[in-house]
Each structure stands twice: as C-alpha cells, then as structure tokens.
Design a protein that fits this description.
The protein contains 15 helices and 9 strands. By secondary structure, it is of the alpha/beta class. The longest helix is centred in the C-terminal third of the chain and has 15 residues, at about 215-230. The radius of gyration is 24 Å and the shape is elongated. The model has no long low-confidence stretch (mean pLDDT about 90).
C-alpha cells in the first residue's frame, strides 16, 4: 500500500481519483491511516460517505471490501459461514471410499477449504484492503457490539480453526445516515467526521470534476438549483449524488443549460418523494436561475 506521509498527500491522492476533500477530512483520513483507527462517517444520504471509501481504496491501490448492513444482519452473514453443500459432498465421497474414522472426517469437514469468508473475514485476510461497513445504523445493538470487539483486535476466533488475526489491519470506513444513534462505545473506537452538504463553490467543483463533459453553464445552474432545494424544508434534501444525477440526466437530454420548465420536467432525477416534488414545483425556480444570470 502507498506510504502516506501527511494530510496534504491524502488530499492530493483523493483528488486524483476525483474526490474533493477539505482540510478537516484530509486530516481525519490521514490520522485513520497513521493510527490504524476506523473512520466513522456520519451525515445525510448522498453526501459522499460511501464514495470516500471507494476513493480511498483507489488512492491507496487496495481492494474495496464492502459490508452492506441491514436489519437482522448477524455474524454468519458478515464474518464467515461453512459451505454445507460441499461438506456434504465430501462426506458422501469419503463414505463411498470406505473412510470410517469419525475424527478424521470431522477434521476434514471443518478445513479452511470449506470456509466461506464473508466481508469482515475477507478484510482481515486481505492485505492491504479497505473495509467499508455501510449504513451501520441499520444494524442492531448486538451486531454493533460484535463489530466493536472485532475492530478492537482485528482478529476473530473460529472454534474449528482457532484465532485468525490480520497481519496488517485494513483501513476501515463506517458510514451512518443517522436513522438511529450508534452507541458511544463504537464511536469512541473510531475517528469521527460529520459530512455536511457542501457549499456552492465546492459542490460546483465536484460536479465539474466528476462530469467533465457537462457544460460549465449547466453545471453551475444545476448546482444553484440543488442548493435552493435544500433550503426548501424537504422530506429528503438532495445530496451531492443527486446533483450529479440531475446534471447527467440533463446532459443526456442534450441540454447545455436549463430553464425552469426543463428543471420541473426532470425533478425525478433529484427528488424521490412526491411531497418534495410538489414543493419544488411551487418554488420560483426561474428566479434561482435568473440569479445565476440564466
């Protein structure tokens, strides 16, 4: 993995991947790498938390291993499981060959070749790697406690095989959309960064960097419209991801700039609730565009 010497190098490497960071996030990422501490990213959906993990993996030249959390997720889904069909086939083959030694059969059945490594175990066994634990707020308290124990030692004990430990701990990024509060014990184990919606200038820079084929005029107008929508008390304010989606959709329609009528017609690219779309239609989008010289 690439050696990182200071926060400025982190910023430069991330920008090479198209991911723009401010000084605070660059410092936090550097400390996570230097101290081998997980990075806990919290904020609204679509503000770049998941994209940060992908950008870090690309910048560091390491594979990205993703664990998508959901309600009811447990250790067998996140850590490891046994390949029961293959074990059964092996058992039948051994019986057909006349093997009767029960102890030998049991030891063969729980060999590592029958072990299915889920994302957490994959990350411990892959050096280097970036582990993304996405939307940890969707998991329950028991899974949080399990994850805290694993991240404290970067090791896991499998009864049939013993303790497996990461020789080089993975870079760990945890994300939360704050649908519920994550316990303090897990947060204390991590370095924390709150992802807010970016300023107009930073968001415009992100659009220009990620979508270089979109006209400068269109990028500026879309960014201005999204910034206005965020101030409209919506159920789900659009994130940067939706800004990119909207600009890309308009560009796909052949637009080099946008007017209020076209903006309303394409609201489905940026707003995903009927109530939000109705509220957006009631805004003076033409005035927003006019303020940008449109």
């Amino acid at each position: 993995m690439i050696r990182i010497d200071d926060p400025e190098q982190v910023r430069a490497l991330l920008e090479e991947t198209g991911y723009l960071v401010d000084e605070g996030l660059a410092v936090t990422c550097y400390l996570a790498l230097r101290l081998h501490r997980p990075l806990f990213c919290e904020g609204d959906a679509g503000v770049g938390k998941t994209a940060l993990a992908a950008a870090l993996a690309q910048a560091l030249g390491a594979p990205l291993i993703r664990l998508q959390c959901h309600e009811g997720i447990d250790a067998s889904q996140a850590l490891y499981d046994w390949d029961f069909p293959r074990q059964l086939l092996h058992l039948r083959a051994a019986e057909a060959a006349g093997v009767t030694d029960a102890e030998r059969l049991e030891s063969e059945l729980y060999d590592r070749r029958f072990l299915i490594a889920r994302p957490l175990l994959q990350a411990l066994q892959t050096q280097p790697s970036v582990l993304l634990v996405d939307e940890i707020d969707r998991a329950d308290d028991e899974f949080e406690a399990f994850l805290l124990e694993l991240l404290s030692e970067y090791s896991v004990t499998i009864p049939e095989l013993g303790t497996l430990r990461a020789e080089d701990p993975p870079v760990v990024v945890l994300t939360s959309n704050r649908t519920r509060e994550v316990h303090d014990a897990l947060k204390r184990r991590c370095l924390y960064h709150w992802f807010d919606h970016p300023s107009f200038a930073r968001e415009l820079a992100i659009v220009r960097r990620r979508l270089p084929g979109v006209s400068a005029r269109l990028a500026e107008q879309v960014t201005a419209l999204v910034q206005a929508l965020r101030g409209a008390d919506l159920l789900k304010p659009p994130g940067v991801a939706e800004t990119l989606d909207w600009a890309e959709a308009l560009d796909a329609l052949g637009a080099s700039e946008v007017d209020a009528e076209l903006a309303v017609a394409t609201l489905g690219s940026v707003l995903k609730y009927r109530e939000d779309a109705d509220r957006a239609r009631g805004l003076d989008l033409a005035a927003v565009l006019a303020a940008r010289g449109g």
